[in-house]
Specification:
The complex is a heterodimer. Helices cover 73% and strands 0% of the residues of chain A. Chain A is built from 8 helices and no strands. The radius of gyration of chain A is 16 Å and the shape is globular. Chain B has 9 helices and 16 strands. Chain B has a 16-stranded mixed beta sheet that branches. The longest helix of chain B has 21 residues. Classes of the chains: A mainly alpha, B alpha+beta. The interface between A and B is large, with 47 and 34 residues.
Chain lengths: 168, 404
């Protein structure tokens, strides 16, 4: 029964931005984030017939695909390459006329710091701030809700230290 | 640092992260580009199967700026040599109301003819692309039969054009009101105004989307009809695709009011019936409207047997015309065959250009955009024993009448 399954375009329009932000926080560079985001929605599009809304929320389903695609991306490119590109694509240096606003620059720098956290910390922060509950974060990361909370708080502290160190 | 201070800092950081994630979004247009790529990868048969599986409405939605993304791909895929010396736009138009003729007529024959009534024609919508530098993705190029790689050009045809002026057409950018009126006339109700669209509308048997001019790549104002599962088949036993398309258009009062030729592409499913728009040019048979790839367009009806599944057409706009001086055919040929400054000097194939015609292309310019005459040269070449086509577009309006 698929009556309660929303049109895919609805999901696409609703989640594209959030998925992109989640991936951007992981991979650092806008071009990489676009590539991975495209792969996520290509995969989701093909798999949508198998999506069962009674078993999971669209958000959890899409973020699972996004997480897998991001891991695939890192496997394909290697962490060193990721870091190199992250450094090369420092948010402050990006050409974006709209990005001159102070807040936006700071936010991008902040996501750049998130991208340099260890993988699980980075993931916990990105999933949590993409709007998922700790329960959903834990499910996606293969741990309990409490463990997800702990991981998130540890990650937050690590990020705070990094931000203070780097002066974001 | 006290524990309380640290808590406050973490709280502030959480809020900042919330804001960072909430405001980090892909660049403008990425969503539509990606959506189109997804649609393009989807076989039609799959769409139909999903339609009956209850997914039809959502999955077949057209992207908010579908033509923009399509052209963005096609410009790269097909590639048309466009000279840098004056550049060129791409063309399209819709229901035409031929407006006042221009005072420019008075100056016909004067080599120092002032610009036509619209003043200097605006800069072309696409940046001039020296011929021979486009690189086409191999599969797309092979599928289309279009060659987009570097080439040198030799003219071996015959092209006489006994005219020194031609009309330039201008239209005002359609508003949301115009889109609403168009939709209302079709019986479709406004659903919203997604980014990049003048409006998205729904009717009993289809979804309608209306889009204004797109500057880059330049695309004409257009409407898109996406049939839903309740779209009935056209009851016309024995009718061919062209008749079926015409019946559907007539039923919805969408038959073109402009002159056209018809082509039918029945190589795949859906079958595509294309009403290729022509512009009236005194002293010349109708000049086709072409895009930056030299491909004719106007109004397309896609048919799955007797059932219309998709329509895309030029949004009706009111056209004014003014006469502008154009370059001679000889000069156009010289430009078409001139060596490109971007060619590297390596071994490139030679294209025998054998055909030429006067066409119209779109040049966007903000509130008003223009359909301008151009010369379209076509030839073939052999690539890996496969015969492929190459086009070269040369803007026809005299450079002295163009915006510097």
């Amino acid at each position: 029964m698929q009556a309660d399954r929303p049109p895919f375009e609805d999901l696409y329009r609703e989640y594209l931005g959030r998925i992109y932000a989640y991936i951007r926080a992981q991979v650092g560079a806008a071009a990489d984030a676009e590539d991975v985001t495209a792969q996520v929605f290509m995969n989701a599009y093909q798999a949508y017939a198998r999506f069962e809304p009674r078993n999971t929320t669209p958000a959890a389903w899409l973020f699972r695909i996004a997480r897998n695609a991001t891991l695939d991306h890192f496997r394909a490119h290697g962490r060193r390459e990721r870091l190199r590109r992250t450094i090369e694509h420092q948010p402050m240096a990006e050409e974006d006329p709209a990005g001159q606003a102070e807040d936006r620059i700071r936010y991008r720098a902040l996501l750049g710091q998130v991208a340099q956290l260890p993988e699980r910390q980075r993931d916990a922060i990105a999933l949590r701030h993409s709007g998922l509950s700790f329960d959903e974060v834990g499910t996606l990361m293969g741990c309990s809700e409490d463990a997800a909370k702990m991981l998130y708080h540890r990650a937050l502290k690590a990020l705070k230290d990094a931000v203070q160190r780097e002066g974001v | 640092m006290s524990e309380q201070d640290e808590d406050l800092e973490l709280q502030a950081l959480r809020r900042e992260l919330d804001d960072a994630f909430a405001t980090t979004r892909p660049r403008v247009g990425f969503d539509d580009e990606l959506w189109l790529r997804m649609q393009a990868k989807r076989p039609f048969s799959t769409r139909v199967r999903d339609a009956f599986g209850g997914l039809f409405q959502g999955i077949r939605e057209v992207p908010a700026v579908p033509m923009a993304a399509v052209a963005g791909v096609l410009v790269v895929v097909l590639g048309v040599g466009i000279f840098a010396y004056s550049g060129i736009g791409r063309g399209g138009g819709s229901t035409a109301t031929m407006g006042a003729n221009a005072p420019g007529n008075d100056a016909r024959g004067n080599t120092n003819l002032a610009a036509g009534a619209f003043g200097p024609v605006p800069a072309p919508g696409i940046s001039a692309t020296p011929k021979g530098v486009e690189q086409a993705p191999p599969l797309a190029s092979q599928a289309s039969g279009e060659y987009a790689g570097p080439a040198t050009f030799v003219w071996s045809g015959k092209f006489d054009l006994a005219m020194s002026t031609a009309p330039v057409y201008r239209y005002q950018e359609p508003s949301t009101n115009a889109a609403d009126q168009f939709a209302t006339a079709l019986g479709a109700a406004l659903q919203g105004r997604p980014q990049g669209l003048l409006g998205s509308y729904s009717a009993t048997t289809y979804t309608l989307k209306v889009r204004g001019t797109v500057e880059s790549p330049p695309l004409s104002p257009a409407y898109f009809i996406l049939a839903n599962v309740s779209m009935p088949e056209i009851d016309a036993a024995g009718a061919g695709p062209q008749d079926l398309a015409a019946i559907f258009l007539a039923q919805h009062s969408l038959l073109p009011q402009w002159t056209y030729t018809v082509s039918v592409d029945s190589r795949g499913n859906p079958v595509k019936v294309i009403f290729e728009r022509q512009f009236d040019v005194p002293g010349y048979a109708g000049a086709h409207l072409v895009d930056s790839n030299g491909i004719r367009y106007g109004l397309e009806v896609d048919l799955n047997e007797h059932r219309p599944v998709f329509v895309q057409g030029l949004l009706p706009v009111s056209l004014e015309s003014a006469t502008y001086r154009i370059i001679s055919a000889d000069r156009a040929i010289r430009l078409a065959t001139a060596p490109s400054t971007n060619e590297t000097g390596g071994s490139v194939p030679t294209v025998q250009l054998k055909q030429a015609e006067l066409v119209y292309v779109l040049a966007t310019a903000g509130d008003h955009s223009f359909y301008e005459p151009a010369f379209l040269f076509s030839g073939t070449l052999q690539v890996n024993s496969v015969t492929m086509t190459r086009h070269v577009l040369i803007p026809a309006v005299d450079p002295s009448q163009r915006t510097p």
